[in-house]
Amino acid sequence: MRTLQDSLAGAPTMPLKTGKAHGERRAGPLIFLIVLWLSLAVAVIFLLTLIVNLLLEGGSRFGMPLFTEYPSSSPDRAGARPAILGSIWVIATTALLTIPLGVAAALHLEEFADKKHWFNRIIELNVQNLAAVPSIVYGLLALAFLALIGVRDKNIVIGGALALSLLILPVIIIATREAIRAVPSEIRDGSLALGATKWQTTWRQVLPASVPGIATGSILALSRALGEAAPLLLLGALVFVSFDPNGLLSGFTTLPIQIFNWTGRPQEGFHELAAAASILLLGLLLLMNGLAIFIRNRYQKRW
Amino acid sequence: MASAPDNAPMHLHATHPGQVPDYIARPIMRVENVDVYYGDFRAVTEVNLEFGLHEITALIGPSGCGKSTLLRSLNRMNDLIDGARVDGEILFHGENIYSKGVDPIEVRRRIGMVFQKPNPFPKSIYDNIAYGPRVTGMKVESMDDLVEESLTRAALWDEVKDKLKQSAIGLSGGQQQRLCIARAISVRPDVILMDEPCASLDPIATMRIEDLMQELREQYTIVIVTHNMQQAARVADRTAFFTAQVSEGTGARTGVLVEYGTTTQIFEDPNDQRTEDYISGRFG
Fold first, then answer.
1. Where are the transmembrane segments (chain A) (predicted)?
2. A207: domain CATH number?
């Protein structure tokens, strides 16, 4: 009878060096890997082409005049100053409208509402669906609402903010709910066991703990709103604005609409301006997304 | 505070756990005919228990015997679970904590709780302690003193006094659990419920918590749920043994109290065969 020792001693040793770096024995997996790489490459190449193209076309016009000049019928003198200010006005107003509302709605749904009740389940389903509604529909809704309350000139900052708020409110609600759900129930239990009320627990423990998640979600939602043109077009934002917007009732245009406007002109100079404004818009979006990622990584997992 | 009957030997704090008289001279809590339900499911049935002032009572038994469920119903933490319901009476200083008009918030302040997994708030050590007094609106002359006192009582002050402003998340597991104990006593409860407080700790951290419990017993009444029989034998004055009864028809498991007595009696001279089997390691 052979003992284990004998078997081990007598077994012919297989060389560990098989000459294959990744241990793949057949061609199939390798081909699959190559296909995956190609798919990735297609996506990245398109993005790079876009950026390089923008830089080549608009790079020469990307400078101070873009920020300081007003639109003009002559491409050499035109700039995007009102559009930049308009975007800032509209996005800031949107943020002020949506973040408190969205966070409050999410807090109610997560912490206070009875999740098993049919009414709350319908609301939950609706919020999910609203996040997938095309943006132009929200433009129509805002338009109808403004008409209903008798606003004649609908291209106003508050009108645009209203349309964009409707658009991103579901996104903010969903992101906030995720953030709230990520707060461990042990934290709530610990607070309640000390004699804190539900309200105190929500306000002092749950909400502060979910702020990073709320911030990340809100910034991403706002960056979506920043790049949005369709609902604002419906409100009539495609106009020649040669003044700085200065209030909620002020007329406005935004960067995406300015780009749309310039791209539609026949002169080559306007196309270059459109590219330059696109660089600015793209940079802003990257900045906001970068900030969101930074916040997410910085405050991740504190327990 | 009720005084002990004249014929009772005068004893405030037993020097060793288990060295307590057979009867409870000064009960602080009384559980009368308690059934706990989750919806239609009866998790615990027919429990009658008394907890003596400044005593440590251990609830032991196999998994699923309802001891944690019972513990959570002692300070109305079960209210937070959908469908949880308590039948019978749980008297605290003679008052049923489930009667109408009793504020569960106040119940939880008077009857504190320490959980299985240390759950410090993601705040500074100082704020972890100050949180309870702040939210309950306690009148505090000096919050700094209260924080120091609570941490001292929880045997944590010396380790953290130089880093009170640092996050509590950076503490070790055992320190976190002592912080949670300090947090629980900061609101000056009468009773502290502990739900397997050492389950996630190493033996040395466990020993420190057990020592701490002996000190806390001077001022508080402690009810501890533990899986660890040796722990019950080491720390508890009285022990209640629970087991799960499987219903013939449905196969539902319901917790029942098998035996309740001094720890010495339960471990050395159990009356019930099931207790003896469990203690001697034959099941569970």
1. 30-56, 83-109, 130-150, 156-175, 232-253, 273-295
2. 1.10.3720.10
* Residue range(s) defining the domain that contains residue A199: 61-298
Across the interface, whether the CB atoms of B184 and A194 are under 8 A apart is answered yes
Q: Which of B117, B121, B187 sits opposite A195 (nearest CB)?
A: B187
| pLDDT tens-place string over residues A21-75 | 666 667 888 899 999 999 999 999 999 999 999 999 888 888 888 888 888 888 8
Tell me the C-alpha distance between A104 and A119, whole Å.
18
pLDDT digits (tens, 9 = 90+) for B181-204: 999 999 999 999 999 999 989 999
* Domains of chain A: total: 1
Cβ distance of B135 and A190 shorter than 8 Å? no
- E strand intervals along chain B: 27-38, 41-52, 56-60, 84-92, 95-96, 111-114, 191-195, 221-225, 238-246, 253-262
Q: Is residue A72 part of a domain?
A: yes
pTM score: 0.82
User: Which residue(s) pair with A244 in the sheet?
Assistant: none
Q: Say what the pLDDT of residue B3 is.
A: 44
> pLDDT: is A302 or A201 the higher one?
A201
Q: Enumerate residues 6+ apart whose C-beta is below 8 A from A156.
A: A248, A249, A250, A251, A252
* Lowest-pLDDT range of A86-95, A110-119, A178-187, A200-209: A110-119
Residue A149 lies in a domain: yes
Which chain A residue's Cα is nearest to B138?
Answer: A195
- Nearest by CB to B136, from A189, A190, A195: name it: A195
B77 neighbourhood in chain A, CB within 8 Å: 189, 192-193
Say what angle helices A185-193 and B173-186 make with each other, to 10 degrees.
40
Task: Show residues of chain B in contact with A193, CB under 8 Å.
Answer: 75, 77, 108, 112-113, 115, 184
For chain A, give the number of residues. 303
**Of the candidates A143, A130, A121, the residue with the CA atom closest to the CA atom of residue A102:** A130
Task: Give the mean pLDDT of B39-61.
Answer: 92
Q: Which fold has domain B27-119+191-279?
A: Rossmann fold (3.40.50)
Interchain pair A194, B109: CB under 8 A? yes
Which chain B positions have a beta carbon within 8 Å of A204's beta carbon? 131, 135
